[in-house]
Write a structure and sequence with these properties.
globular; 6-stranded mixed beta sheet; alpha+beta; Peptide Methionine Sulfoxide Reductase, Chain A; two-stranded antiparallel ribbon; 19% strand
Length: 247
């Protein structure tokens, strides 16, 4: 089930270009006036998606304690990072840029929407504790809306596109199979537009972007756009949820 919310537009992300505090404040006032209890931009699921039919044998598949890496892009990396940080089995996360070159992998250039990067999050996880398919399930259920093309709610541009940057052939296979499974089941009212592409490189974002939601919990953008994702994770996946206090 989906709850449709305000479709406020804006461009950019982070300190300057991200939707302004005044605009967010107005949106909150309007939401309260309309009786909206959960405020996010775009759409948010109220129930989790089915598990992937094809997965990497689920938790316990890892061998010898080796960690694996997954990279996801689904709008502003603040919200993507703060959600994945709260999943059991996730060891580390980094906000960064994928899909472009090293020379332009910086916030100022990426915000111009001309570099080809997507705001991304690198997730290092223990496959003995959580499967790649489970991470995908959370990604599609609560992290973002995979039917929005080149945007997420108020953030518009190709740097906010939905992408799975796979790091192994197995990840590619599982991701494509899960998207096909969800589309066939009509899990969303529109077709999934998530790209599945190989990871060429991941470039760490500037330090002030790392753990931004944890460091700025009172930021209006975080309050409106990102905290609801964490609440949805806890509500839909209580068995996966863990508290996070920062690096």
């Amino acid at each position: 089930m989906f709850v449709a919310m305000s479709n406020v537009t804006g461009v950019g992300s982070a300190m300057g270009p991200k939707i302004g505090a005044a605009a967010v404040g107005i949106a909150i006032v309007l939401a309260v006036a309309l009786g909206v209890k959960t405020m996010v931009f775009g759409q948010v699921r109220t129930e989790k998606l089915p598990a992937p039919v094809l997965d990497d044998q689920a938790a316990g598949a890892g061998v010898g304690g080796h960690s694996e890496t997954a990279v996801f892009a689904g709008g502003c990396f603040w919200g993507v990072q703060t959600t994945f940080e709260r999943i059991k089995g996730v060891e580390k996360t980094w906000a960064g840029y994928s899909g472009g070159t090293k020379e332009t992998a910086n916030y100022g250039a990426v915000s111009s929407e001309t570099t080809g990067h997507a705001e991304s999050v690198k997730v290092v996880f223990d496959p003995r504790k959580i499967s790649y398919g489970t991470l995908l399930r959370v990604f599609f259920s609560v992290v973002h809306d995979p039917t929005q093309l080149n945007r997420q709610g108020p953030d518009v541009g190709t740097s906010y596109r939905s992408v799975i940057f796979y790091t192994t052939p197995e990840q590619e296979k599982i991701a494509n199979a899960y998207i096909a499974q969800l589309d066939a089941a009509k899990a969303f009212p529109r077709k999934i537009v998530t790209q599945v592409v190989p990871l060429a490189a991941f470039y760490d974002a500037e330090e002030y972007h790392q753990d931004y939601a944890e460091k700025n919990p009172d930021n209006p953008y975080i309050q409106v756009c990102d905290i609801p994702k964490v609440k949805a994770l806890q509500a839909q996946f209580p068995e996966l949820f863990q508290e996070y206090k920062g690096k």
